[in-house]
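Thread title: Can someone regenerate the structure for this chain?

I was given the following input by a collaborator and told the matching structure tokens would be attached. They weren't. Posting the sequence so someone can regenerate them.
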Amino acid sequence: MSYNPFSILKVQKKFRTRSELEDSYRAKGVRNPLSPKDTLGRFLAVLHNKRGFNRLGCDYLLLTILTGARKEETATLCWREALTEEEVRTTSYVDLENRVIRFYDTKNRNDHELPICDATKRILEDRRDIVNDTEIRADKRKWVFPARSSRSKVGYYSDSKSLCEYICQEAGIMKLGMHDLRRTFGRVAEGLTSYAVVKRLLNHRNTTDPTERYAEPDKERVFDALQLIELHMLMTSPELYNTLLASAKYPPLPENQENKE
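Best answer:
Regenerated them for you:
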């Protein structure tokens, strides 16, 4: 073909504007991020209670919301030490030794790195122990979240929808899509750090903005912001916060005794 036939849509202005899209999303109830004031805490509290029954699925949801990653980005993570040097160049992985999560070839067609903050590090260390200690087939041990079914074609965990629905039902949350976990991260981040850092954490790009490269935050600033976001989210659920972080560095929070009973 000498040209892209879809160009006619742009010429005839058939694409919806940003405001039209937003109106459509509101009408359909598509976007439903959790609120740090109420629903986020309820969601994390129920998730914490279910970790004992479905550790794999709950850890997957927890890592997704704490990193702001897309659902497939979290699902396809491998352990860095389980990969060959050739595989490392084309695979998303967790490098606990250097405290880095690297997402390969994301939606924006680039690689994206995030630092591993303290609670995320605890989750991942526990996950590595679980994967190594359980009877998982050797070819699945490279995955951070290996599939529960031996018949899985992809090899990694991919059935979080029903778990998310159960958590929402118990937490009294009407509707929540998997991408709403990423939107929740963005909502919390927006209230705690700068616009440039939020864009960096969510791996959003604006190729038409020539000043973007001058506002690129350094690694230390990104880590500090992500650690603050992680703490802010976990503090909405004291029980989960205490499980993951309570220490001399992070004094335990008073827990709701009524919820525990």
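DSSP finds 13 helices and four strands in the chain.
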